């Protein structure tokens, strides 16, 4: 069974990616630490999917969210990123070939979202920002969430 509403991994990833400066300090340093979730944030903009994946993976490794030497951790992160990109791109995970570009903030949250610890750890990747033609001012907001078990 999932933990209480406030302990939800995906919900916390979305709240973290949407939080602005002072909101982030209040939200992340107390709430996520109390839940023993590991987390980080970053930004990326590109017309190329591989650059987005690489930026998120690099941030996750540098912040100790995943161990780059353990395949299952990187595999789980990769699938969470791709699932989140499905939301951002409305199901067609393609950017440059379709003359689309994104400017995204991202958050990564890792923890145990179930009452039974034997269910193991999970990862959530939340993306929020803009997508549109590669012309400033013609983009619109977008959001995506991906969750995968480790």
UniProtKB/TrEMBL annotation:
<keyword id="KW-0694">RNA-binding</keyword>
<comment type="subunit">
    <text>Homohexamer.</text>
</comment>
<dbReference type="InterPro" id="IPR015111">
    <property type="entry name" value="Regulatory_HutP"/>
</dbReference>
<dbReference type="GO" id="GO:0003729">
    <property type="term" value="F:mRNA binding"/>
</dbReference>
<protein>
    <recommendedName>
        <fullName>Hut operon positive regulatory protein</fullName>
    </recommendedName>
</protein>
<dbReference type="Pfam" id="PF09021">
    <property type="entry name" value="HutP"/>
</dbReference>
<dbReference type="InterPro" id="IPR036482">
    <property type="entry name" value="Regulatory_HutP_sf"/>
</dbReference>
<comment type="similarity">
    <text>Belongs to the HutP family.</text>
</comment>
<dbReference type="GO" id="GO:0006547">
    <property type="term" value="P:L-histidine metabolic process"/>
</dbReference>
<dbReference type="GO" id="GO:0010628">
    <property type="term" value="P:positive regulation of gene expression"/>
</dbReference>
<keyword id="KW-0805">Transcription regulation</keyword>
<keyword id="KW-0369">Histidine metabolism</keyword>
<keyword id="KW-0804">Transcription</keyword>
<comment type="function">
    <text>Antiterminator that binds to cis-acting regulatory sequences on the mRNA in the presence of histidine, thereby suppressing transcription termination and activating the hut operon for histidine utilization.</text>
</comment>
<keyword id="KW-0010">Activator</keyword>
<dbReference type="InterPro" id="IPR023552">
    <property type="entry name" value="Regulatory_HutP_bacillales"/>
</dbReference>
């Amino acid at each position: 069974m999932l933990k209480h509403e406030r302990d939800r991994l995906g919900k916390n990833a979305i709240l973290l990616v949407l939080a602005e400066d002072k909101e982030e300090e209040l939200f992340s340093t107390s709430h996520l630490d109390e839940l023993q979730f590991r987390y980080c944030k970053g930004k990326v903009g590109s017309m190329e999917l591989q650059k987005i994946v690489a930026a998120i993976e690099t941030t996750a490794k540098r912040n100790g969210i995943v161990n780059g030497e353990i395949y299952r951790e990187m595999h789980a992160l990769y699938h969470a990123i791709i699932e989140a990109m499905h939301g951002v791109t409305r199901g067609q995970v393609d950017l440059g070939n379709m003359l689309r570009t994104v400017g995204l903030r991202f958050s990564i949250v890792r923890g145990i979202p179930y009452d039974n610890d034997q269910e193991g750890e999970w990862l959530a990747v939340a993306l929020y920002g803009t997508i549109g033609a590669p012309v400033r001012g013609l983009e619109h907001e977008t959001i995506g969430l991906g969750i995968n078990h480790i």
